[in-house]
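Table S2 (text version). Query chain:
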Amino acid sequence: MASNAKIGTRWDHEGRRAERLDVQMQAALRPSGAKKFSVDVIDISVVGVGFGSAANLHIGDRVWLTVPGMAGLESHVVWRNGHRYGCEFIHPLYVAVFDHIIQLYRKSA
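Corresponding structure-token output:
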């Protein structure tokens, strides 16, 4: 299955470099030097992820997101709005990995 997500340097949807697709999944998040906890992943792209959490994270914090069945994805917090966060992956996801996540967790319209 080929991805329909777009990536580039000119993506202009709220200043993002890649299209985020809505998902519905629980994942684990571990901030640097802390214990992991569950988060509700809301959307994902090949370059980042959005999630909700009552945790108190700060812009610039380094975190590892663990999608069920996968190794932790290193990222850092780039924005916060209340209890909603956006993180950028240190290394973009391979398209096949992104497609797999979307296939399993894409939110129905």
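Notes on Table S2: The radius of gyration is 13 Å. The first strand starts at residue 21 and ends at 31.
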